[in-house]
Amino acid sequence: MKFCPQCAAPLVEKVIDGRNRLACSDSRCGYVFWNNPTPVVAAVVEWNGSVILVRSKGWPEKFFGVVAGFLEAGETPEEGVLREVREELGLEGRIVDFLGIYSFFERNQVIFAYHVSGEGEIVLGDELAEVKALPPERVRPWEKGTGPAVKEFLRRRGVSVRQGGA
């Protein structure tokens, strides 16, 4: 971003609250680009005793993750995670447990992660290329993004954790 979205003046770097930030060069405007993280919800979905891993369209063939998406305006994280499970898997979900809040610095996101029990038949949403169901002991959490939530889910289930991807 090079120009102020409020007055179109050039943005300049300024130290605000001890951090370098982009701010409007026009002192009458006062706009600051805070670049706050985006809230994301994630579900470690358990369905028929298995953990459901998803591959989004456009992802590499062997890259799977958990159901996740952006929190929408006017919804709680709990509502958002259940909406994502419905949209992506066609399942009705029930929140079993809150797994935690995780920073994903590489994408400037903060992730609210839940263990969700899914009921019904899986119907792939528009964003997904495929799903796979694995017994919890075969799931290997990854290091970043939603991986720490998967690791926490497995820890709470008493499953020995091996790093390295699903």
From TrEMBL:
GO terms for molecular function: hydrolase activity. The keyword Hydrolase applies. The keyword Plastid does not apply. SUPFAM superfamilies: Nudix. Keywords: Hydrolase. Residues 36-156 form the Nudix hydrolase domain. This is NUDIX hydrolase. It holds the Pfam family NUDIX. Coiled coil: none annotated.
